[in-house]
Amino acid sequence: MKKSILTGLLTLTACMGTAASASAAEAYTVKENDTLWKVEKNHKLPFAAVQKMNPAIDPKNLHIGTKLRMPETYTVVEGESLQDISKKVNIPVKELQSTNPNVNSSNIQGGTVLVLPQKTKVAKPKTKMDNTSTKAPSTSVVKTVDGKKLTYKRTLSSRATAYSAAPEENGGYTGIDYYGNELKVGTIAVDPDVIPLGSKVYITGYSFPGLPEGGMVAQATDIGGAIKNNRIDIFVPGSPAHVNKFGVQNVKIYVLK
Fold first, then answer.
1. Coiled-coil annotation: which residues (predicted)?
2. Which of 14, 106, 197, 247 lies deepest, with the highest CB count within 10 Å?
């Protein structure tokens, strides 16, 4: 079952006005009588945001002239939703929520300063796969249960579990994937080191009510702390009690071109 997402922190500076503003990270020079708390307060940053950016700094012993790395921030314009902001800054909704836990995501006020998570590149697939994964010739084709022919790059033998839209199975968030899209049949959570996020796949070998019989095309748009290596998590509509009956099943995955 999918769990919460790990994110890094960056910081921002506040900027009021009619247009939204995302500030680039800048260094701050420590002045006399400065404390980390005072720096954070003056920049309207959450508690410990600056310390997370400067782990080597002793918060009880700041030296005048020390350069502090400052996070990036985004100042909310009245009427904006978290989904609107997510699209503007190109950061998934869940990451914005994770780095701003004290902000009411359903009622964000204009002028609120959001801390932006550190943007990281999605890891590329490991060049050396284990013996359960095989590379396929460029002309490899799999035939779906409805007769369609799909070209795939490689295959992967995997263990599959299932998760529901319940917040307790989604790190506290209800019914959305890593990118903030609504969970639906065909959504799967993956280890991005094995199956890159955004990949389309064809899955066979499972059997469970609520999923297409025989096989289905799915897309890797979710991740989870417990989803590592060849394991995947398949979204299934229904209550957690129903979804838990899926158990652990062996499946074959065709990573499509």
1. none
2. 197
Share of the chain above pLDDT 90, in %: 32
Residue 144 falls in which region: left (phi positive, over 0), alpha (psi -120 to 50) or beta: beta
To the nearest 10°, report the CA torsion of 85, 91, 95, 101: -30
Task: Read off the tokens for 239.
Answer: 């209550």
The residues near 77 (Cβ < 8 Å, ≥ 6 apart) are 18, 19, 20, 110
- Determine which helix (DSSP H) or strand (DSSP E) holds 98, and give its type and residue range: helix 93-99
Query: Residue 109 in contact with residue 78, Cβ under 8 Å?
Result: yes
The burial of 167, by beta-carbon neighbours within 10 Å (0-12 exposed, 13-18 middle, 19 or more buried), is given as exposed
145 token code pair: 């249960």
- Per-residue DSSP letter, 206: -
pTM of the predicted model, to two decimals? 0.54
For the chain, list the domains and their CATH numbers.
21-115 (3.10.350.10), 133-256 (2.40.40.10)
Mean pLDDT (the chain) is 80
Give me the pLDDT at residue 225, please: 78
Helix, strand, coil % (nearest 5) of the chain?
15, 25, 60
Q: What is the pLDDT at residue 21?
A: 56
Distance CA 75, CA 244 (A): 41
